[in-house]
Structure formats: structure tokens, C-alpha cells
Design goal:
It is a single chain. By secondary structure, the chain is mainly beta. It folds into 3 domains: about 80 residues, Elongation Factor Tu (Ef-tu), domain 3, CATH 2.40.30; about 70 residues; about 140 residues, Sandwich (Jelly Rolls). The chain is built from 3 helices and 25 strands. The strands form 5 sheets. Strands 7-13-10-11-12-9-8 form a 7-stranded antiparallel beta sheet. Strands 1-6-3-4-5-2 form a 6-stranded antiparallel beta sheet, with no helix packed on it. A 5-stranded antiparallel beta sheet has the order 17-14-25-20-22. Strand 8 and strand 9 form a beta hairpin. It starts with 7 loop residues before the first strand and ends with a strand.
Length: about 325
């Protein structure tokens, strides 16, 4: 099916109902077949589309008309559903203004781009891909595949040569990887967007006792305000990273009648907080007043690593938390 952009002309000789030839002032330059619309604005009540099968220098031959058409009546080129199947005939500058779409079919898109490139297992969170596919992937892209009988979803956390490092809740099995897709959409269908799923907030409802001189006493925030993906444990007060990536945490410790203390968030790999985790070190010799200490910290965590709120105090005697005032929350930032 052919098309000529912005074509418009007029009927030069009135045609009766059932006519199969119409004479026009101008004839389209494209070869038949193409569609024409008679009376496109229905100004005369004669609107209809016809399929033109051949043309001469002064006329077009077409399927029998269902309406009569007057001399001087406007005729325009029409975009038909058959034409829409092949957009190679259209340019980026063409528009559909005042054109008729006959039975258009609009297809939805789930956000995933399929690829036929070969992908093979390299490690639980790593694949080897072709150079062609590697060139299409970068940090932050989404990756979907079928592996070990199930569909698995990942972030792309790095590309080095043809090795692609992934970040996902489920590990790959050392077996065939098929039905591969990638995406740069914000949230393609079926994908768990980390910012929406990997976040929690909790507080400690008890007056937990903190022994003096004991390093990194874990504060058990036992009441959740929310925990979207179920990665926070109210029995231990610890968050477990569901995928590798960057996470931001906020912590607040409220201790009654404090003398000298500091608090921090620490990771499982660094429980004393010296490396990854210290939020703040605050000393107080204020005669036993209550003390609140808070801060924020961003960690790069590996899948399975843990983070929790902890405190140290060296007043010489056990101190109690202020019930309901010590809190921790965290959320995924990205890979």
C-alpha cells in the first residue's frame, strides 16, 4: 500500500453512486494501490474511503462508491490500517493531521526488549554475553531470562568486556539461559523496582537495657511501621540486603540519663562500626540527662549482608532506652 503525504485535490466531474472511475484535478504521484478519502470533513455529507486500484493522467479507478460525489468536492490521501503495518513508507516528518485511520490496531508494550544473542552462565549473579549484547547493556539496566525452569529478574550492576554482573534476589543455576530480555524502562512488567520494594522502618517499643562498656549492643527495633519486601527481622533488629547494591539508613538512639556514649549503624561484616558503619560519636558528661543521637549512612552491601542499629555507652552502669523513641529505617538507592 502506498502513500503520498499532504496530497489534496478536487473532483472535476460529478460521479454517481456506484461509480468506479473518478476524474480529479490532480492525480497522486505514487503508484496504485492507495486509499483516497472523498469529502474528508463530511462538509457535503459524502464522506467515504475508497481503495484506488489504478490511475491515469486525469482519473483514478477504484471500488464502487457508496455515495455520489459533486464537482469541486475535496479529495485527500488516506492512511489506512494496511499502510500502518509498514512504517517504512513514512518519514519522521509526516503527521496524521486530518487523516483517517481505518480500524487501527494499537499494541501494548511491556517495557522489555527481546534479544536473540547468546547468553551463558558464569556465576550465580554473572553471565557471559556476546559483544553485541554487551554493547547494549550498562549499569542500571534491567535483565530478564528463563533459567532452571523459571523467569528471573536482575539489575545489571556492571559490564566488563563480555562479562555482565547482575544483582537479583534469585541466583542463576548453572544451566541454559534462554528467553533473554533487557530494558531501560523505569519499571518493566514483572520487575521489582528496588526503590519500591526494598525499604523498611521500625522502632524499639521497649526500654531495652544497654550494658556499660559493651561494644556495639544491638538495638532490637521490634515494631515495624512498614517492611515492603520482608527483609527486616523484628526479633533481631537486623536488615538483610535482598540484592547487592547501595542502601541508605537513618538511625536514632534515645537513652535515658546518659553520661558518655556514642551510637552507630554497623554491618554484619564490621560489627564494631569502625569501617563501614559509624553514624556519630557523641560524648556527654551532662549530669545524667537524657540523650538522643541520630544520623544517616549509605552502605554498599552485598546480597545477604546485614545492617542494624547499635550503641555503646561507658557510664559505668546499665542505661535504658527511652521506649518508642529509638528508630531505624532504610531504603535501596541503586546498583
Amino acid at each position: 500500500m502506498n502513500y503520498q503525504d499532504n496530497f489534496e485535490t478536487q473532483v472535476t466531474s460529478a460521479a454517481a453512486v456506484g461509480a468506479t472511475t473518478t476524474y480529479l484535478n490532480d492525480i497522486p504521484s505514487v503508484d496504485a494501490q492507495f486509499y483516497l478519502t472523498f469529502d474528508p470533513l463530511n462538509a457535503n455529507g459524502h464522506y467515504e474511503n475508497v481503495l484506488v486500484t489504478s490511475k491515469t493522467a486525469t482519473s483514478v479507478s477504484h471500488a464502487a462508491t457508496t455515495k455520489a460525489h459533486d464537482e469541486g468536492e475535496t479529495v485527500r490521501m488516506t492512511v489506512n490500517a494496511d499502510l500502518l503495518e509498514n512504517f517504512a513508507d513514512l518519514t519522521s516528518e509526516q503527521t496524521f493531521t486530518n487523516k483517517t485511520l481505518t480500524s487501527p490496531v494499537i499494541q501494548s508494550w511491556d517495557g522489555w526488549q527481546p534479544t536473540s544473542e547468546t547468553v551463558t552462565y558464569a556465576a550465580a549473579q554473572q553471565v557471559t554475553v556476546s559483544a553485541t549484547l554487551a554493547a547494549l547493556l550498562q549499569k542500571g539496566a534491567k535483565f530478564k531470562c528463563t533459567n532452571d525452569g523459571s523467569t528471573k529478574y536482575f539489575y545489571v550492576s556492571g559490564v566488563s568486556g563480555t562479562t555482565v554482573t547482575l544483582a537479583g534476589e534469585v541466583d542463576l543455576a548453572d544451566s541454559a539461559i534462554t528467553n533473554v530480555y533487557f530494558s531501560y524502562a523505569d519499571c518493566p512488567f514483572g520487575f521489582k523496582r528496588g526503590e519500591d520494594w526494598y525499604k523498611f522502618s521500625a522502632y524499639c517499643s521497649t526500654a531495652q537495657s544497654i550494658a556499660s562498656g559493651t561494644d556495639s549492643v544491638a538495638i532490637v527495633c521490634n515494631v515495624e511501621l512498614y517492611d515492603i519486601n520482608g527483609n527486616f527481622n523484628t526479633s533481631t533488629g537486623k536488615f538483610t540486603a535482598p540484592i547487592s547494591g547501595y542502601y541508605n539508613f537513618n538511625g536514632l538512639v534515645a537513652i535515658s540519663t546518659a553520661n558518655a556514649l556514642y551510637q552507630h549503624i554497623a554491618s554484619f561484616d564490621n560489627p564494631d562500626g569502625v569501617g563501614k558503619g559509624r553514624l556519630a560519636r557523641i560524648y556527654s558528661n551532662n549530669g545524667g540527662n537524657d540523650l538522643n543521637i541520630g544520623g544517616s549512612k549509605t552502605f554498599e552491601l552485598q546480597k545477604g549482608e546485614q545492617v542494624w542499629l547499635a550503641v555503646y555507652q561507658n557510664s559505668g552502669s546499665a542505661k535504658a532506652l527511652q521506649a518508642n523513641n529509638s528508630t531505624i529505617d532504610g531504603h535501596f538507592i541503586g546498583v
